[in-house]
Amino acid sequence: MTAVEDRAGLPSDEPAAPEIGKARRRKEDARLITGKTTWTDNMVLPGMLHLAVVRSPVAHARITHVDVSAVREAPGVIAVYTGQDFAEEQGSLPCAWPVTPDMVNPGHPSIAVDQVNHVGEAVAVIVARTKAAAQDAVELADVDYEPLPVVLDMERAVAEGADLVHDHLESNTSYHFVFDAGEMGTGSDTDQAFADADVVVSRRFVQQRLIPAFMEPRSVVVQPQGDNYTMWSATQIPHILRVMAAMVTGIPEHKLRVVAPDVGGGFGGKLQVNPEEILCLLIARRLGKPVKWTETRSESLMTAHHGRDQIQFVDVAADREGNVKGLRVRLLADMGAYLRLITPGVPALGAFMYPGIYKFPAYRFECDGVFTNKVPTDAYRGAGRPEATFAIERIMDELAVELGMDPLELRRRNWIDAAEFPFTTVAGLAYDSGDYETATQQALELLGYDELRAEQQRRRESNDPVQLGIGFSTFTEMCGLAPSRVLGSLSFGAGGWEHAAIRMLPTGKVEVVTGSTPHGQGHETAWSQLVADSLGVPFEDVEVLHGDTAISSRGLDTYGSRSLVVGGSAVVKAADKVIAKARKIAAHLLEASEDDLDFAGGKFSVRGTPGTGLGIQEIALAIFAAHDYPEGIEPSIDAEATFDPENFSFPHGTHLCAMEVDTETGFVKIRKYACVDDVGTIVNPLIVEGQVHGGLAQGIAQALYEEAVYDDDGNLTTGTFVDYLVPAASDLPHFDTGNTVHAAPGNPIGAKGVGEAGCIASTPAVVNAALDAVRHLGVTDIRMPLTPERVWRALHDGGDGGERATARTNAQAADSTEGPSMTGGAL
Amino acid sequence: MIPAPFSYARPTTVEEALQAIAEGGEDVKVLAGGQSLIPVMRLRLAAPETVVDLGRVDGLRGVRDDGDAIVIGAMTTHSDVLSDPLIAEHAPLIAEATGTVADRQVRHRGTFGGALVHADPAGDLPAVALALDAEFVIVGPGGRRTVPAAEFFVDYLTTAVEEGELLVEVRVPKLAGSWGMRYEKFNRVAQAWSIVAVAAVVRRENGRIAEARVGLTNMGPTPLRARQVEEALAGAEATAEAVAAAAERAAEGTEPSSDLNAQADYRQHLATVLTRRAVTAAAGL
Amino acid sequence: MTPITVRVDGAAYTDDVEPRTLLVHYLREQVGKVGTVVGCDTSNCGACTVHLDGEAVKSCTVLAVQADGCEVTTIEGVGQDGLHPVQKAFHEMHGLQCGYCTPGMIMASIDLLQDNPDPSDDEVREGIEGNLCRCTGYQNIVRAVRSAAAEMRGGGDGNGHVSPAVVDTAAAPHVAVQA
Fold it and tell me: Pfam families this protein is in (chain C) (predicted)?
């Protein structure tokens, strides 16, 4: 029988199928597939001026002289500003996460005044009538630099007598953060655990520097209107940006409106208060004219914050039977030259995830935040958790090798069983729900594990030049950032709640205002599904408003897989309040007791009286007219809610990668990728699947392709998409994805968060797979990204494939004005 | 970024083009497809005084049969090369290599002649032209001259085309007899330039390799012929072992650069592996 | 300044441009076609892809003067009588997230299907290698292009055509019972 025939037999007033769980096509798409979009750079305002930033070509120097007189004379130039012009009023860009009480923060000027600390730091800003005129004038700025020693290598930076990034500080260490489960009472003594262990495995892993590389370059427009300012910015965080920009510039918060229009991706990279955002405000205030700054891609790669860049020293202790006994992690985390919004917090956030899904009795984590003469690091998809997951999933494989155990068997022996949830880990987190075994079983089936293992064996036996390996990553992550009190205990500068409001319009249409600010995640669609189910109104009758502080007054924006879990929950809570308010009106109009009313399918009906009833959309009109409503209440059924979660949520999953390694060239190719994720309740399976795919692409890219490389002078040599290798369609495999569903108990939706899962889980699966392919040839580690050269060197010389050649885009290029290979050999 | 200002000339004949180049001042750039030049100008790594756009010069586009050779106009786009029946019949190696150049959009604009004159050591077509013993027809104020491929690629990004001159067409000899061809390209991602690539053309006769020509991409500042490999293959038995032994000599005498993608010794290793694979495929083994 | 005449999405425009003006900047700033966007400065990302005389090009790597006398089609012009099948398929198959790469991706896909009306997954992946997407991991884009191809070939031939109902299941093939 078909679905249609099924339905034919049902009564006509059968409620519509629930929206939650439906693969709704996205509301957002209509404008995006037709080009009818409002990217910030599309904005044109009367009298608008364009900015170009003069940037430091050197990584570390004192500015001895700045002469911009030629700039001022250039055609079309209206004004030019140097650091001196803003020295008094620019303050410092905010760092919202002082992870330790004695953390050293050197302060971060938006424009350098007397010293530059990384290549690309702003030293002057040109304001001109056109973008071209502003860019033309850049080369006329004459800045003299007195070079200072360049600090790039973290291990050297923390050594005795190292050159200093900030010479007024005592060292290059910003902070020393420790989490010791023994001291915290969440575990036993770590040193003792290691002393008692049969086996200890120690490894050093390098989390290379990455670039978020959102597709839409950053762009800012500021319009001054009297003493009011409106800023449009390609940001993930209009709400946070408004508060922070008000504090930095002294513009009163209520005089500043921030709008994030259509935003083309972020991945943490637009979770920032950017120097250029502050400079646009300062200049618009000076000139009283609207200004725009839009970065070029090379500017973006060079100056937008980077991610990862940690050296991890990981020790695991176990007994001979493969029971883990202790985990010790020591990190060096590259802050770059300054502390931006949550620069220091990224590795600290990861601290809680190193134990992964395993029942470690003892755990100690420590991290040094280290200054170098590079662009600051900050959030990038996963932010701390990919690093933790990589370390634990890699070292579990190393431990399995040491013990001669199957890597899956070792995991099984140590992971939390389904019956043990909720489970409080050695890091003090209460994992909410899950079933690692079931997810793993499904993933093994999806991959075709047994057949691939058999093929691996055949290839080994025949000494095939192309070897095959299978890598595991059985991961969990903390999402739904975050319980405000927990953030407080971690010294984070804000809460983790989210806000929503629901406005019932006279015609019955519904406006949902959310503090979660999307930039590709499909909030407009998913929130509509939530509200359609809660209020029983048609999906099409719901409009979701966001991203404008004048419309959405309260919000904490989108990052850390928090939107649905926290922001979606706020929407559901607000809907509950709308229903509660409407119930009073309905009771009044139906002349019934509130207690006798049922609410279903958008309609209040009197219990036991079929055929009666009043729709919530009708009530919206009635209360708009307000001719007849109960005494003592306000004539409105609008409501708002702020949801503060009591716990994180913990998505988990099993990711499996089958990898072919060409042992002659070192080329690696993913043969098959399968994963089963448990992200709790699925509101929209299309969106969930899309988030997993996108995360996988970025996690795989860390494993195989991407690395921000600096040369010895501190120049970013991967400064364009020619050298910073964002994978294209033909570089990535098909993904076989699946889900198990264990609802999160901590929020009314049951959602756990999905935005970062694929990115967090995939990287170690890929590296473990490559190693599994060639471990029998003596390879024990390969440094990320697994370039063919590194794989080949690891095969031939041992070691992890090593650092890259001292990076120069092309040795001969320096002599040529024409430049090196740009786009594939076509003039 | 926006390119720095320049004067623009759009000639419609070769004569007009030569005149525009002559009158263009100190720094003249010839714009063919622009797929390398325009990005370089956007990054302001090049800021020519004058750009001479060949886009409207009729007669520089297309492929024609010229007896024992085919003649490819310098302004023939990569996508036209890919769909050209003469190239498919007489020089399929060019089509195979062109298919690996950048992406569809770039191939719609980028030109055969432009890529050769740009002479990027990582470009795919120079080594192919070298392996096919192509001839380059250059015109200039002094008239018309023909330069063999072996003398065309002079240095890094430098060819025999002198200032004031233009490459107008490339003659590719038709290969008589039983030839096989293969372009073996090695790069990290789809869009990336070759780390190393090998163009192989092999003629088989009676179970032996009668003649082989091997061009190397990105093994030095110019494309190279792997002469030692060619000599070792000439007359060798057409067996995997003989090919492998010859391919071991692919990197002899090369001085490839070390850069972000590969150090020199790795490039040399790749050259031997890729040469073996290219020759094996070209020989039909 | 150089005078140029260009037909964009069916309408003729005559303007003076600086020779250095890139086609994409001309389209965005002088013609107002802001649906076409700029994503990089090295011709890698393909976000600016438009059709120039019927062929996909990266409009950031073409000078506006080179388009003089030519016909340009942007994302705003492909579906002038409603949505183009490729636009529909991107929506239907969730082939976009933030949407920034989408105009270029759609224009590149239409171009591919002109040459290859029935591409395999691998042929789609190679055919759009000049376009970068940071959100989707490409899988749903591949799905969308193949689905549009089937639609454009006449649909329902069982060869690559994917009906929305099938996609619903395909989107979440392993959703277990909610626990």
Answer: Fer2, Fer2_2
Q: What is the sign of the dihedral through the CA atoms of A22, A23, A28 and A34?
A: negative
Torsion angles phi and psi, residue B101, rounded to 5: -75, 120
Residue A584 maps to a domain: yes
Q: Are residues A741 and C177, on separate chains, in Cβ contact within 8 Å?
A: yes
- Is residue A729 domain-resident? yes
My answer on whether A539 and A616 are in the same domain is: yes
Q: Collect all residues of chain A within an 8 Å Cβ-Cβ radius of residue B183.
A: none
Q: Which amino acid is at C120?
A: S
Say whether residue B174 is in contact with chain C using an 8 A CB cutoff.
no
Interface touch A827/B36, C-beta < 8 Å? yes
Domain spanning B7-54: CATH 3.30.43.10: yes
* Closest chain A residue to the Cα of C177, Cα to Cα: A741
Binding-face residues of A in 650-679 toward B, CB within 8 A: 664-665, 667
Q: How far is C10 from chain B (nearest CA, A)?
A: 21
Residue of chain B nearest A668, judged by CA positions? B188
What is the per-residue pLDDT across B145-197, written as a single tens digit (0 to 9) for each? 999 999 999 999 999 999 999 999 999 999 977 899 999 999 999 889 999 99
Domains of chain C: 2-78 (3.10.20.30), 85-170 (1.10.150.120)
CATH 3.30.390.50 for domain B179-282, yes or no, is yes
Tell me the pLDDT tens digit for each residue of A524-562. Answer: 999 999 999 999 999 999 999 999 999 999 999 999 999
Per the listing, tokens 């790469």 go with C101
Token code pair at residue C116: 């290859």
Low-confidence residues of chain B: pLDDT under 70: none
The C-alpha R_g of chain C, in whole angstroms, comes to 18
Res. A8: pLDDT tops 90:
no
pLDDT at A810: 35
Indicate if ipTM > 0.90. Answer: yes
Across the interface, of A705, A721, A818, the residue whose CB is closest to B157 is: A818
In a domain, residue A816? The reply is no
A698 part of contact set with chain C, CB < 8 Å = yes
pLDDT at A81 over 70: yes
Question: Does the CA dihedral A12-A14-A16-A17 come out positive or negative?
Answer: negative
Residue A504 lies in a domain: yes
Residues A502, A554: one domain?
yes
Contact A827 B118 (CB under 8 A): yes
- Answer whether B5 touches A (CB < 8 Å): yes
Chains touching chain C through at least 3 C-beta pairs below 8 angstroms are A, B
B38, B118 contact by CB (below 8 A): no
Do A688 and A784 have their domain in common? yes
Q: Which of residues 111-170 of C touch A (CB under 8 A)?
A: 121-122, 124-126, 128-142, 167-168
For residue range C95-152, what is the model confidence (pLDDT) as tens digits?
A: 999 999 999 999 999 999 999 999 999 999 999 999 999 999 999 999 999 999 999 9
> Is the pLDDT reported for residue A823 higher than 50?
no
Instruction: Return d(Cα A12, Cα A15) in angstroms, integer.
Output: 8
